[in-house]
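PROTEIN DESIGN WORKSHEET
SECTION A - STRUCTURE
LENGTH: 85
TOKENS:
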């Protein structure tokens, strides 16, 4: 069973679609750093995705590290400077 889209989601989809169409037709009118608007948007999407994946990789490495060192950290004595005791 499918549920109908909420009006705000439908409006958001129409807005994004119209922005995409406007970007295609205004390609020659807007230049960003010597690139056309479409080329700039593609570069932005590519590099933001790459940066996002690098960030997720670092987060995964940190999660694995803390998962592997959790038991020794739990068994370590409390530090008086950190606990206030």
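SECTION B - SEQUENCE
RESIDUE ASSIGNMENT:
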């Amino acid at each position: 069973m499918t549920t109908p889209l909420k009006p705000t989601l439908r409006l958001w989809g129409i807005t994004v679609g119209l922005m995409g169409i406007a970007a295609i037709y205004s390609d020659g009118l807007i230049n960003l750093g010597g690139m056309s608007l479409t080329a700039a948007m593609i570069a932005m999407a590519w590099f933001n995705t790459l940066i996002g994946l690098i960030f997720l990789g670092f987060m995964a490495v940190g999660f694995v590290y803390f998962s592997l060192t959790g038991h020794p950290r739990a068994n370590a004595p409390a530090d008086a400077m950190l606990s206030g005791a």
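SECTION C - NOTES
DSSP finds four helices and two strands in the chain.
Residues 9 and 15 are 10 Å apart (CA to CA).
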